[in-house]
Amino acid sequence: MFLTALYACLFYVMTLTLLIGVGLRVIRYARIPSPLVIPTTPAPITRSGVVARMTREVVFFESLFKGSKWTWLFGYLFHFGMLLVLLRHFRYFTQPVWYWVETLQWLGLYAAFAMTLGLAGLLARRFLVDRVRYISAPSDYLMLVLLLAIALSGLAMKYVWHTDIVALKAFMLGVMYFDWQPLPADPMLLIHLSLVLFLMLIFPFSKLLHAPGMFFSPTRNMRDNPREHRHVAPWAEKLGAEKLGAKQPGSAATSRAAD
Amino acid sequence: MAKQEFETPSLKKIPEIPPVRIGAMAHSKPFIAKAEHQEALGYPNELVNNWKQVALDKMEELLGKYRSLQVFMDTCVKCGSCTDKCHYFLGTADPKNMPVARQDLLRNVYRRYFTFAGKYFPKLVGAVDLTEEVVDEWYRYYHQCSECRRCSVYCPFGIDTAEVTMAGREILAAIGVGQKYSNEIIGKVFKIGNNLGLPEPALADTLEGLEEEIEEDIEVPVKLPLDQKGADVLLITPSADFFAEPHVDGLIGYAKVFHQAGISWTLSSHASEAANFGLFIGSYENMQKVAMRIREAALELGVKRIVVGECGHAWRVAYSFWNTLIGPFDFLDPNYPVPQHICEFTYDLIKRGALKLDPSANDDKVLTFHDSCNVSRASRMGDMPGGQFVIPRELIKASCNHFVDMAADTIGEATYCCGGGGGLLTDDLLELRVKGALPRVQALSEVIENHGVTHMAAICAICKSQFSKVLPHYGFGMDMIISVHQLIGDALVFDSTH
Ligand code: SF4
Ligand code: SF4
Residue A204 burial by CB count (10 A; 0-12/13-18/19+): exposed, middle or buried? Predict the structure, then answer.
């Protein structure tokens, strides 16, 4: 019972840390203006063009593909492998299991291997490429090791040390609906869960912030329209105002630096 | 010339990524600004006593003013995609010239003082204390970045090291450690109106001399008007165009185009400079102050349009920032883009059939084109994305018969900086400039070898000065580099119908 209570509480605390931590970061990013129009050009001129550009970045890792084919390959295997694995895990949180989650189950299995392979490739690059080794801090290695350990402990449960899936699911649903059920005390499961909880904890304090951060990158999300739209940040409005004449702020063609 | 104290990198059969050589460029350091250069820009005269606090306060201020800086400090995952993209790394092999490592100089301090992980686990995340050594490294390596944005193209999060470099330089200036070259020049613009400190009478003289020269050459009375009230177009051009080679031939080219198109135009002695070094030092205020002279001149002269001459970062500031800094331009003719690039202007005339060009006039040349970094990755021409690559090439093709592009991964959005941009075009950084030019010269040497290229055209005053200086180090002629509008000017056919 102690284990159940401990892990249930940890789930609550870590979920809150993750949500509040990332939320505060996102609010900060959203509040800071971009005083100048700085998309990396050629850049889209329209809003829908920007949506298309961001979509290509998120779905295909377009810039990374241009920059480094190996990193792209391993990074892609890892991220999309992990996405499928996560979706596969939905079967532990839904009752009855959603249809599309069921149809994904077989794919999720292959994805776990893709994810592991991708992580191993990224880790190898960190050791082997002298430039990447130079820029890596201990945390950069450890992050990959952590993710790798999560993937491997998951695979170990699937193929070697099975756990009581039915009881585990009851525990997860119990946590979600505040009706605690006993957690199976299998060591591999406890390791796997602990690592995931730790990942949730460090998310808002680490470079994992790249996930929300990329949507705020002004070089990618700004439109290339400075001649057509006047773009002024609130803190810059009073600068040079007397030389620009009184009608400067809020004149018809002026768009606030909100986007 | 004194004997050179460094080795010019050798050109290879195929471009190579060098193995890292730690500290290879640690000795490179431009002259520090003197008291008077700092003062004119509103910065302290020398290193302030409580520099550490001032630096951290400035960093905090910038993090709250620029979303780019805040997001870029947090999002880098050290993927390494940018590590082999900087011309200064490729030319020097110093790992601190890898874009991510350059950012890390600031990021490691940011982490130490502004993040949970860096405050409590500095070793783990590579956070470092702000010490005098760190400040010294900032000064050295933030003056080994030309703010060319090539790295930002290849970063999965669009992290633009130029933004970080600008922040780094602004913090340095705020504690009293500015760079002499840039700050001295900005001071001259404030005092006299241009980077060269060329006063009105000297400018008038120069322009008159050019008019005589043109008339002697082609027997057409092409004018270069100065401070002419009521002209249609105000031309803002880098002051190097007034006297430096090969820039001046570009200026002659613009004048011929205006003459032939029959459009009245003028230069301004109050705003006789397109360059805006306020960008280089990352100072919004100084950039705005420099640009303000142009608005004043346009109002004073009562022009309808503003056209900008060939200059890379100047075009970035004009195209991307003028409207923000010195707009709105509701006093100008809304039928034309404000500002308009001289290449857009000429291209428009050619498309309308207002200019007649005879490309055989340039038959003695085989051309290639160097895309300037700031034009390519920080601005646009025409009404579609990428027009900045199309329009200058169309101009070259309209004015000469032989044109070949350099390798695809060295032009367009992937173009390499000339090695002298971003406030580094100074003799105290010559070694850096020569080494930083390596990737461009490498690509140039390939088209020389394979296609018999004789000249490289450019649309940037810094590129032109830089190449005329560094090409000889690689065994090429300094006169290989020419202005796009020199080609136009030489190919223009004058007739009397205008
Ligand atoms: S902006 Fe250009 S010079 Fe600066 S780090 Fe990036 S690639 Fe290098
Ligand atoms: S490409 Fe971007 S995320 Fe990757 S190391 Fe460079 S700056 Fe960091």
Answer: buried
